[in-house]
Amino acid sequence: MVEGAKGPHVPVLLEPLLEAVAPVEGTWIDGTLGAGGYTRGLLEAGAERVIGIDRDPLAHQIAAEWGGVWGERLVLVQDNFANMDAHAEGVDGVVLDLGVSSMQLDRAERGFSFMRDGPLDMRMGQDGPTAADVVNSAEEGELADILYIFGEERQSRRIARRIVEHRPFTTTLALAEVIERAIGRTKPGQAHAATRSFQALRIAVNGEYEALWQGLMAAERVLKPGGRLAVVTFHSIEDRMVKRFLQAHGERKTRVNRYASETPEETAPFRILTRKAVGPREDELKRNPRARSAKLRVAVRTGLPAEAIEATEIDMPSLGLKRR
Ligand SMILES: C[S@@+](CC[C@H](N)C(=O)[O-])C[C@H]1O[C@@H](n2cnc3c(N)ncnc32)[C@H](O)[C@@H]1O
């Protein structure tokens, strides 16, 4: 039995997503293939073709096990979703399910988890500096900024000081222990002391905020009028970026003209379908507590031309922005 046939990863918010984007037809891009839960969901819901993008070779190894049954309806691309418009044009939908997958967290050798001992790697694609490179070479102030700005870790300075005292690090558990000793063990039921620091390092190593910013613009370029954009985020910074993007590129209020035609005038590249972010329902939470912090936002592409957007317009955290 191929584990990937259903996937070891439980897809989050898939049902509300499929409802919000219905009807699913034509060509879709799944920019975060992972274990393929969304891609299979889209194909089963009626997509003629899904282009499944993931920068991690592991997602593609797993897809080789489950993807065959879909024949030419499934196209696999190993790339950053920031480049999605290089692989298609005029698509009917784009879905993004951001962050790290459980298949990545579960493999100790990938170095994403503070619960499993492995090399301090954290790279989704297999290129560029590892988390060990960042931790062992960044200046103390830079390290503190990474933890604070990317991970909202309030004790960033204290952690950075301890890291510098104890480096070099080569393994996940050694780093997690030093972080835990720096800020103290958390109470049972609370997140592990290293949660925010590991998240911040992962985001830095993979350039995740930059990819999201670029990916949202690429989605705007690649969607046809009427095409759907659905984004699922797992933490507040990402959700805020998506929200700001949709506020800036979602329809603007126009003055009501009583002589105007019935068809509303298009005023922006997107029309927002989810005024408030959609979270998991009770039954999903019971099945999968990991879904607790997931948020879904959905918008429809209009016929207006795509516009670039500045990173600052969507509140993208950047190391250039010094804290006060
Ligand atoms: C949360 S998982 C997606 C799970 C998927 N929806 C499923 O149901 O199995 C996120 C996936 O996106 C990939 N990923 C994250 N950022 C990416 C990027 N910028 N470009 C391409 N893939 C990315 C990760 O490697 C990971 O496999």
UniProtKB/TrEMBL annotation:
<feature type="binding site">
    <location>
        <position position="104"/>
    </location>
    <ligand>
        <name>S-adenosyl-L-methionine</name>
    </ligand>
</feature>
<keyword id="KW-0963">Cytoplasm</keyword>
<comment type="function">
    <text>Specifically methylates the N4 position of cytidine in position 1402 (C1402) of 16S rRNA.</text>
</comment>
<dbReference type="InterPro" id="IPR002903">
    <property type="entry name" value="RsmH"/>
</dbReference>
<keyword id="KW-0808">Transferase</keyword>
<feature type="binding site">
    <location>
        <position position="81"/>
    </location>
    <ligand>
        <name>S-adenosyl-L-methionine</name>
    </ligand>
</feature>
<keyword id="KW-0949">S-adenosyl-L-methionine</keyword>
<keyword id="KW-0698">rRNA processing</keyword>
<dbReference type="InterPro" id="IPR029063">
    <property type="entry name" value="SAM-dependent_MTases_sf"/>
</dbReference>
<dbReference type="Pfam" id="PF01795">
    <property type="entry name" value="Methyltransf_5"/>
</dbReference>
<dbReference type="InterPro" id="IPR023397">
    <property type="entry name" value="SAM-dep_MeTrfase_MraW_recog"/>
</dbReference>
<feature type="binding site">
    <location>
        <begin position="36"/>
        <end position="38"/>
    </location>
    <ligand>
        <name>S-adenosyl-L-methionine</name>
    </ligand>
</feature>
<feature type="binding site">
    <location>
        <position position="54"/>
    </location>
    <ligand>
        <name>S-adenosyl-L-methionine</name>
    </ligand>
</feature>
<feature type="binding site">
    <location>
        <position position="97"/>
    </location>
    <ligand>
        <name>S-adenosyl-L-methionine</name>
    </ligand>
</feature>
<keyword id="KW-0489">Methyltransferase</keyword>
<comment type="similarity">
    <text>Belongs to the methyltransferase superfamily. RsmH family.</text>
</comment>
<protein>
    <recommendedName>
        <fullName>Ribosomal RNA small subunit methyltransferase H</fullName>
        <ecNumber>2.1.1.199</ecNumber>
    </recommendedName>
</protein>
